Amino acid sequence: MTLDDERPKQQKADEEMQGEHLNQGAARDALRGVLQNKRIVVCCGAGGVGKTTTSAALGVAGALLGRKTLVVTIDPARRLADALGMPAHADTPQRVDIARLVPEQQDIQGSLDFWMVQPFPIFDEMIRTLSASPEDAERIYKTRIYQATRHLVAGMQEYMAGESLFQFYSRRTYDLIVLDTPPSRNAIDFLNAPDQILRFLDSRILRVFAPSESSGFFLNRARKLLNSVFEQVAGLSFLSDTQEFVGLMLHIFDTLQEHADTVRRVLASPESSHLLVTSPDPLALEEALYFQRVLLERHIPFGGFLLNRSLADHPKHSFLSLSAEKRESWGTLPMSLQDAFEKLEPLAAHEYALSEQHFDLYHRLVMLAGKQSWALAAPHLGEDIEDLRGLFRLVDALLPRLVAAVA
Question: To which H or E segment does residue 148 belong?
Fold first, then answer.
């Protein structure tokens, strides 16, 4: 039997072994179920693992599944905007034209919008919505203390992401919201952000600055002390501005608490799912496992692992698997081909060893995911994804039947 006769048989055996080693059908079905049934999908992970691109691909998949989908990113690197060709500083979500990459006869029921968190518009809209009247909102905007608070709160990017999530969730404009978070240790700050900002804006503290008609011995003593301090340091006009600001804002603080409680409740409810994007890099895996522990400790629903840029599903039917007897037949080949085989063999050996490591890593993630969650390996596509066509390739790797249905 010649080498050519043997290769199909060897390839079939390798593919069968690979199928036993990496059965991702159930994981793909689970991911499809998440995108079809959840209202919020939060993508977390270390920096540099392709989390932002994965979030965009999940948004594309959600739209192809017929859902009105919004992808929100608070990633300061702004790679997602570049990948989708969207302006990075838009005040409102921007529509992404995914229909141009599918057949004209295909009727896409879903849609895809993209938005990068813009703190100032979110904060202004929050004040406008919560103020007792449009006139009160305008009065708040004009105070110096509001301008200072606006810049301070805007710097708390994680909190503004939570507030924007609340606004989009409450409006129910979208069936699915995919939230791309900063690197995972900072994503812990995203979960803690409502508590942090509310400590800063604690109404019990700021009531000291409220207009003087409030009563109470100790409160009045505190006000007198503040009056004397501000007279010497900032002048009476600053104190009066502060009192006006606090007087208008006091009733808003309780509503901010309600918003924070709503975000916390929704993220911990069956409406949401958290996906941990990682890569074969050991540090990235450590970050993912750390964040999984945090989610479980807080009873926040963990969907599964997405092992990105992986060789876990890499075919292993290379000439490395051929027996020594078959290698002897190389001597009958032209010298140029013999030289080529000899030069490629070390590279193939390295790739084979790397794919085995990725197989082992994938199975470790499967074990760590447990019966209630899942792990899915996405292949290394060989290049950075920089446009919508590249996102379709990633969708095809994650949910191949979905792309086959529309492309």
Answer: helix 144-154
Chain segment 341-386, per-residue pLDDT in tens: 666 667 767 677 777 888 888 988 999 898 889 999 988 886 677 7
Local structure of residue 380 (DSSP, 8 states): P
Rounded to whole angstroms, the Cα distance separating 169 from 40 reads: 9
CA distances from 154 to 146, 149, 164 (A): 12, 8, 12
Mean pLDDT, to the nearest integer, of 78-104?
76
In order of 71, 263, 302, 309, 333, the CA distances from 34 in angstroms are 15, 19, 11, 21, 53
CB 309 within 8 A of CB 50: yes
The angle at the Cα of 23, spanning 22 to 26, to the nearest 5 degrees, equals 145
- CA-CA-CA-CA dihedral for 133, 152, 81, 275, to nearest 10: -100
Q: Which of 183, 116, 194 is nearest to 156 (CA)?
A: 194
Quickly count: other Cβ atoms within 10 Å of residue 307's Cβ. 29
Pairing of strands 176-183, 302-310: unpaired
Report residue 367 as tokens.
């074990």
Amino acid at 357: Q
Report which of 249, 160, 140 is spatially closest to residue 202, judged by C-alpha positions: 249
Q: Which of 41, 64, 43, 63 is nearest to 53 (CA)?
A: 43
Q: Contact 355/316 with Cβ under 8 angstroms?
A: yes
Instruction: State in words which class domain 21-118+158-199+270-314+362-406 has.
Output: alpha beta
pLDDT of residue 2 exceeding 50:
no
Which of the four pLDDT bands, split at 50, 70 and 90, describes residue 106? low
The torsion region of residue 309 among left (phi > 0), alpha (psi -120 to 50) and beta comes to left
Which residue(s) pair with 380 in the sheet? none
DSSP class per residue in 213-258: T---HHHHHHHHHHHHHHHHHT-HHHHHHHHHHHHHHHHHHHHHHH
d(CA 36, CA 17): 32
Q: Are the C-beta atoms of 152 and 15 separated by less than 8 Å?
A: no
